[in-house]
Amino acid sequence: TPSQAEAALRLVAFLTTRYANQPFSLFISDSADIPEAMRGQPLARRIILRTHPQAGIILQDDSPLPTLIVQGEGNALSIHSAWLSGHFNQLAVDRQVEVLEWKDPTQVNARTITLSDLGYSLQQVSGVGRMDISFAFSQADLGGSIRNLRVRLVGAHTPVEALASANLSVLFNGAQVHSELLTTRTDFDLYLSLPDTVLRRENTLTVRFDYTPREGECRIGIRPFTAQLWESSYLQFDEGQNLGPGFLRFPQSLFPDFLVTIEPLTAANLRRAADLISALQRASKKPLRLSWADWQAASTSPKDWVVVQSDPSQIAALKPPLEMQPFRVLNISGQEVMRFESKNPIAALQAFEHNKRQVLLLSNSGQEALMDQLIVSLKHSANGWYDLAGDVYLIGEGMAQGVGMDIRGGAVRVEPLQPSTAVWLYRLRPYLFGAGLLLLLGFLVWLYPKLVRRQPAST
Question: Which distant-in-sequence residues (6+ apart) come within 8 Å of 231 by Cβ?
């Protein structure tokens, strides 16, 4: 049911966050039988989501596997899954819990995030020469799409001895944004604006110390230079979009919450949606918050949208970059680099903007199993979700791995194999332009003698 699917996806996102540093395998089935791969595994666990008149969360140890049962009907199951996938599940002190009423806490998106909030403690370096303190963060870690990023860096260092020199530099994604000489003071407090042109989906900020001892001093037994960056240092930002449409806007665009639609709702499509949600959650330290919506309700909502759709007839209304019909791909020189005939089934993951909201669409044409192959290809990619760029990632029958494309960004052009009027006009544009120039030139040649004859005779 939709409420069971919503509960399953919420728990997938929660478990991916909870065990981010402990990879685990996930099996989704509409059968009560324990999958063969889980039998005999001492650390295996099972969660059962079921429709039941008595809503609640029950922990059982007397079954073949330790089992957590989440049950209820309609909204009751949604309430229990929302509570279980949130931080308040730590309040449970019994083996059976019933949530009588629940409303998700209002998300207050803080515009200030400390290094401690990002999971970094006090950072320290010590030595001679170049020493770096770096910390990485994504836009999703900050709670959504951002712009106008500022940083305050506070710390301390040992005194710089006479005739020695020390320099502090700040680099953002490899670009130097600040540099200064350190003097006899033993602390630093910097407030810097970081350029939007350098801001990415995943970012790295580096505080660099370059220390040179006085000349002639023996390196053995030399007093090292020590510097600290305090965890109270923080980032400030404004909400906004600084990246172009496509995969680079995910997962940060899905905050604070988003909708999920699966059509048709089958166990296989639910597994595909779960793999997508898991991949998105791995790219963020903040938990994703999702709700189920059917196609009609979701298509008119302003919220961002994740869709798994096996029916290509409904997809055309979204106007995605790639329509699931026979097409060919041309490079910027007009040369054909790829072709898919009607007999060639494909699956595609597309990220695009529709009605001022972000849509992530997984669909197929011809073979649903290709969607599984696409997800496997994404999982086996060296950096997973981080390797996605552009707006389309597709795989066809017989292809060993997926291919990424940037269609709306102009890196390639896609033409249907049965060209439309717009395609013919695009192909004929150079010839029409040349014909227009010839007609204009002919008109001027015809007009010039007539204008000359009308000039009055000179006296």
Answer: 114, 115, 116, 120, 121, 122, 123
